[in-house]
Every structure is written in C-alpha cells, then in structure tokens.
C-alpha cells in the first residue's frame, strides 16, 4: 500500500520550508522567534551523530576480517576524495575568473565592520595545518563524544575497531553489542527525524525574518554563479562519475530526496548523515564500506565547500578591487585544499574555513568577509547539498570498485525506490 503524499517526509519538509519563507517574510519578528525550533532539531540530531558514527565505523571496520581490503578501501576513498574535491576547487576558480561576479562592486573595506572579519579570523586561526592535525587527537578517549568533533570520533572509532579486530573471537560479543546499540540509536533517530518539518520551518522562518528576501537580491550574481556551478558539478562531474559506475545521477538524487530536503531546511549535511548510512546499505553497498566512506567523506570530501571557497575568495578580491596574480590564486587553491577539510558538515564552518584561506593572502582585507555574512546562510544550503551528494556518490563508486554490488542490483534498488514514490495513475 502506497504512503499518502502528505505523510512522505520530504514532502512535509518542503511544505514546512515554504511556510517558513512566508512567515519570515510576512511576520519577520515572529519568524525570528521560531529560531529555537531549528536550533533544537539540529541539537537533537547532533547528540546522536557521534555515537552513531562510533557504532557504525567500529562495527563496519572490525567486521571486515580482511585487513588488506580495509586498507585498500581506505586508500581508494582518500585518493577519490582528494581528486574530486580538488577538481571542485579548480572548477570554482575557473568560473569565478570567467564570470567575474565581484567586478564593479567597488567596495571600500574601510566602510565595513572590521570586528566581523576579525571574529572569523580568530576562529580560523585554529584551522592551521599543524593545529588541524593536532586537534584530531582528543584530550581524553571520551572527549570526542563530548565535543562532537567528527574527526576525533573517527580516530577513536578506528582505534577501537582495530583493538576489537586484534581480539579475534573474543571480540565477537562486542560486535553484537555494538550492532544492538546501533539499532537503538537508529530507532531514536527515526523519532527525531519525524520532527524535521518543524526544524526546517523554524530555521527558514528565522533566516528570512532576519535578512528578508532582500538578502536574496544582494550579491545575486555571486549566488547565481555559485548555485549554477554547483549544479553543473553535480550533473556533469558527479553525473559522469556515476555513469562510469553504471547508475544515473538523477535516479540517485531521487533516491536520497528525503536527506536532500532535510539539508535544505537545516543548512547542515550532518542532519542527513544517519539517513545516508541507511540509504547506502539499502542500495547494496557493504556495511564496512559505508561505515568507512560516509563518515570520512564528511571531513575529506567537501565538494560544495571547495567550490564555495575558491569562488568566494576571488569574489572578495574582485569586490574590493584587490588584484591577485596567478601565483596568489594558486596559493589560495592550495591552502583551500587543506582548510576545506576542516569544514565538516557544520553550518557556518565553510565561512570560517574561508577566513583561514584568506589569511594567507594579506592583500585581501579580512574585513571583506562582512560582505558575505548576510547571504552565507543561503550559500551554506548549497554547500551542504553538494557535500551530501558527493559523499553518497563516492560511497557507491567505491563499493562498485570493490565489486560489492552489481550494476543490475544497484539499478534495481534505485528503480524500486523510485516506483514507491510515483503517484498512482
């Protein structure tokens, strides 16, 4: 029996987003007051992220008896992440230099609030290369569960998984316990996700109520350029990668539509992480591969953030009439390759990573970040959407490389889900 359209989660989220826009536009103060709905929903999801990653990664890695395969999958994933995210950086760099969205703005940095740029610069200071790697190590074994840092959670999970693997047969009961714990956590997540429409409504009403629809009109050329570039990247680049692996990018987008709507409403790809873990398993990807690739991709495969960072950095240089040589632009590109790895799914993290990238080119005034503050929320949604799609495609591709799922099985699973959502004639 088909589910009525009004009970489908992504439809509910979409309706909630539209209602949020209307409320924020017609009743700005009331829209602002709905912010706790969005914040509360994101906090509910985030409280489950670290334990879910721990259970998924530990069970997936420790149950992979072939350690050679584990190393092979890990290396393939990291190489894939670096190649594709670097390609995203290059595409952003080319597009912003061709379209020149910032030329003609003639912004005087002296007229901007320097405190805004300084605030983000201070946060970005902790995102240097050395600090980045040192921060992966938590102060205590349980610190990652307290702070919610994804990279720290991955480190603790990986060490725990290897320790259980070395226990041999004695580690089996631990794996069974983790499997049951994972089922409990996913059960809690199903309850929380039912509140997604309220969270999306509150987040969107606050955004429109705070900045107004006028925020969509300001810097419209940059936004249009960024969204168009992101769409081209998904359809052409990820589409070509998907086609080479035997599936359609469009069918894949339909398959993860609930997660996409969730990200659209909350501007954070973290909120969709539990759903993506389940969806990739439904497609036929092996649990160890899913458990390794999806969480790692959140930190090492930020395709949307990569496009944003190069486009935004060059845009600010154009807007403030700051000439950049090819060498300086390539330096920005190199630094962005590192700093983008720290922007792991959290709303606004890409903005902080941008500040870290700008710090290497002092000629671009850090105060110019104030230009983007008003529209960052709208840019964040696109960043998160592309990051999510990129990680999903990466998981399927690596699973195909490992011959875990055949083209026929993959496409049958995609067709089955598509048939479930098609309305009755």
Describe the fold and architecture:
This protein is mostly helical. The chain has one domain: Orthogonal Bundle (Proton glutamate symport protein), CATH 1.10.3860.10. The protein has 22 helices and no strands. The longest helix is centred in the N-terminal third of the chain and has 33 residues. The C terminus is likely disordered.
In terms of topology, how is this protein built?
Blueprint: H1 9-26, H2 28-33, H3 35-62, H4 67-99, H5 114-125, H6 129-134, H7 143-147, H8 150-167, H9 172-193, H10 196-211, H11 214-217, H12 220-244, H13 249-255, H14 257-266, H15 273-283, H16 287-300, H17 303-319, H18 326-339, H19 349-358, H20 370-373, H21 376-401, H22 407-421
Helix pairs in contact: 1-10, 1-14, 3-8, 3-9, 3-10, 3-16, 4-12, 4-16, 4-17, 4-18, 5-19, 10-14, 12-17, 12-21, 13-22, 14-21, 15-16, 15-21, 16-21, 17-18, 17-19, 17-21, 18-19
Query: What is the overall pLDDT average?
Result: 79
CATH class: Mainly Alpha
Q: What is the string of helix and strand elements?
A: HHHHHHHHHHHHHHHHHHHHHH
Classify the secondary structure makeup into a structural class.
mainly alpha
Main sheet, how many strands, which sense, barrel?
none
Query: What's the shape?
Result: globular
Gap from first CA to last CA: 14 Å
């Amino acid at each position: 029996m088909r589910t009525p359209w009004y009970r489908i989660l992504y439809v509910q989220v979409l309706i909630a987003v539209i209602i949020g826009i209307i409320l924020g536009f017609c009743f700005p103060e009331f829209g602002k007051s709905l912010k706790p709905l969005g914040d509360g929903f994101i906090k509910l999801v985030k409280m489950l992220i670290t334990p879910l990653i721990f259970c998924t990664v530990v069970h997936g890695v420790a149950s992979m008896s072939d350690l050679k395969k584990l190393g092979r999958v890990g290396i393939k994933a990291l190489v894939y992440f670096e190649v594709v995210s670097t390609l995203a950086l290059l595409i952003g760099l080319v597009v912003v230099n061709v379209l020149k969205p910032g030329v003609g703005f003639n912004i005087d940095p002296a007229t901007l609030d320097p405190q805004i740029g300084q605030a983000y610069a201070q946060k970005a200071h902790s995102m240097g290369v050395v600090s980045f790697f040192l921060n992966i190590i938590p102060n205590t074994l349980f610190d990652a569960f307290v702070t919610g840092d994804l990279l720290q959670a991955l480190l603790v999970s990986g060490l725990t998984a290897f320790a259980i693997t070395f226990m041999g047969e004695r580690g089996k009961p631990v794996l069974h316990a983790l499997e049951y714990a994972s089922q409990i956590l996913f059960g809690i997540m199903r309850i929380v996700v039912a509140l997604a429409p309220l969270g999306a409504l509150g987040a969107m009403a606050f955004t429109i109520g705070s900045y107004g629809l006028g925020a969509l009109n300001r810097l419209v050329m940059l936004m249009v350029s960024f969204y168009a570039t992101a769409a081209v990247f998904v359809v052409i680049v990820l589409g070509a990668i998907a086609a080479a692996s035997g599936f359609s990018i469009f069918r894949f987008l339909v398959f993860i539509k609930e997660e996409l709507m969730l990200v659209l409403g909350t501007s954070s790809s973290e909120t969709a992480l539990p759903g993506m873990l389940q969806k990739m398993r439904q497609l036929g990807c092996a649990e160890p591969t899913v458990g390794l690739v999806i969480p790692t991709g959140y930190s090492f495969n930020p395709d949307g953030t990569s496009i944003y960072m190069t486009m935004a950095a060059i845009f600010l240089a154009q807007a403030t009439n700051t000439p950049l040589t090819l060498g300086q632009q390539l330096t920005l590109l190199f630094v962005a390759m590192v700093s983008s790895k720290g922007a792991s799914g959290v709303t606004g993290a890409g903005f902080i990573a941008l500040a870290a990238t700008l710090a290497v080119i002092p000629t671009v005034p850090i105060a110019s970040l104030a230009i983007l503050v008003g529209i960052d929320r709208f840019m964040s949604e696109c960043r998160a959407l592309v990051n999510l799609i990129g990680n999903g495609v990466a998981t399927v591709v690596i699973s195909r490389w490992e011959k875990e799922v055949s083209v026929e099985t993959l496409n049958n699973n995609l067709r089955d889900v598509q048939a479930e959502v098609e309305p009755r004639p």
